[in-house]
Design goal:
Layout lengths: L1 E4 L14 H8 L11 E4 L6 E4 L5 H6 L14 E5 L5 H4 L10 E6 L1 H10 L2 H6 L3 E6 L5 E5 L2 E7 L17 E7 L5 E5 L7 H7 L4 E5 L7 H4 L21 H5 L6 E5 L13 H8 L3 E2 L9
C-alpha cells in the first residue's frame, strides 16, 4: 500500500490559507511536511496497481512513485479506480487520467449519478477515453485481480450533497483483502460517526486508514474559516471525549493511522501536543510516500 496523498481537500499548505499550520510548512518555522490531497494505491505484486480515490494531485503523485511510471511507450500499471464518494478532491483526478485507453471505475450508483449528471465530470471524461463503470454494492466481496478483492460498506452521514437533488452524500469505505495472506486494509477517509455498523467493518483488519480531517469539532469556526463544524461537514473530529482518537485507541488493530488531514489540523505539526497525543494513543499520522506491506 502506498499513500499517494494524505491531506484533505486543498492539500497542505492550501493555496489560499494562512492558518498557523500553513504558515509553518511554507516558511519552515516548525517541523512539518507538505502533503497532497488524499489518495492511496494498492497492489499485490508491485506491478499492477489499484487506486482508491483520484485526487486533483494525481499527476504529481504518479510522478513521485516509480512503480506507477509507464514501462512502454504509452501505458500505465494503473487502470482501476475505486471511489468512496463524489467529492471533487476524490474524483477530479479522473480527468487527468483521460489519456489512458480505458479506465475501470468502481463507484456506487449514487456516486456515478452525481459525477455523470450533477457535475458532468464523467461525461467529459467519456469524450476522451472509455470509462467502464462497475457498480459498487455494499456487503459483497468483489475480486479486483492478483488475489486482491474488496468489500464496500456504507458510512452513515447526514451531510448534504453539493450536486444533484441535495440528498444526503453517499459515502462508502473499502475493505481490501489479500487472499494469499488473509490480511486486510480498511480505507475510510470520511466518517461522521463510528457507529456499530462501521465498527463491525474494522474487525480483524490489519491496517486502518481513518478520517483525520479535524482535531476539534469547531476547528474551522474558531479560525474564522467556515461556519460549519467538522461533523456537519461529514467528519468525526479526532479530539474530545467522543472523538475518534479515544475510540480507535481501544481497537486491537496492528496499524492505525489518520489520513485526509485538513490543513488546519495541528497534528500536522510534529512538535504539537496534539501530535504527541495521537502517537501516545498508538496511532500514526500518514504522510505522502508512506509504503506498507500489509
Amino acid at each position: 500500500m502506498r499513500v499517494l496523498g494524505a491531506a484533505a481537500g486543498g492539500g497542505f499548505p492550501q493555496w489560499n490559507c494562512n492558518c498557523p499550520q500553513c504558515r509553518a510548512v511554507r516558511y519552515g518555522s516548525r517541523p512539518c511536511r507538505s502533503r497532497t490531497q488524499s489518495s492511496v494505491a494498492v497492489s499485490a505484486d508491485y506491478r499492477r496497481w489499484f487506486l482508491l480515490n483520484a485526487s486533483p494531485d494525481i499527476r504529481a503523485q504518479i510522478e513521485s512513485f516509480p512503480a506507477l511510471h509507464p514501462q512502454g511507450v504509452r501505458n500505465s500499471p494503473l487502470r482501476t479506480v475505486l471511489l468512496t464518494d463524489a467529492e471533487l478532491d476524490h474524483s477530479l483526478g479522473l480527468l487527468l487520467l483521460r489519456e489512458v485507453d480505458s479506465l475501470e471505475l468502481h463507484a456506487t450508483e449514487e456516486v456515478h449519478e452525481k459525477l455523470y449528471e450533477g457535475t458532468s465530470l464523467l461525461q467529459t471524461l467519456g469524450a476522451y477515453t472509455s470509462v467502464n463503470w462497475r457498480p459498487v454494492s455494499t456487503g459483497t466481496e468483489v475480486p479486483l485481480g492478483d488475489g486482491l478483492s474488496y468489500r464496500a460498506f456504507r458510512v452513515p452521514t447526514n451531510k448534504r450533497a453539493r450536486f444533484g437533488d441535495g440528498e444526503e452524500e453517499g459515502v462508502v469505505g473499502y475493505r481490501i483483502t489479500d487472499s494469499n495472506t488473509g490480511r486486510t486494509l480498511v480505507y475510510l477517509p470520511g466518517a461522521q460517526e463510528l457507529t456499530a455498523s462501521v465498527r463491525a467493518q474494522l474487525e480483524d483488519c490489519t491496517c486502518l486508514l481513518f478520517d483525520g480531517t479535524c482535531w476539534q469539532d469547531d476547528e474551522l469556526i474558531r479560525l474564522g474559516i467556515a461556519g460549519k463544524t467538522s461533523r456537519e461537514m461529514g467528519h468525526l473530529p479526532i479530539g474530545g471525549t467522543d472523538g475518534s482518537l479515544k475510540q480507535l485507541s481501544q481497537l486491537p488493530i496492528e496499524r492505525k493511522m489518520y489520513i485526509h488531514i485538513n490543513n488546519t489540523n495541528p497534528i500536522l505539526l510534529e512538535d504539537s501536543p496534539e501530535r504527541s497525543s495521537v502517537e501516545e494513543h498508538g496511532l500514526e499520522v500518514a504522510a505522502d510516500g508512506l509504503e506498507l506491506e500489509i
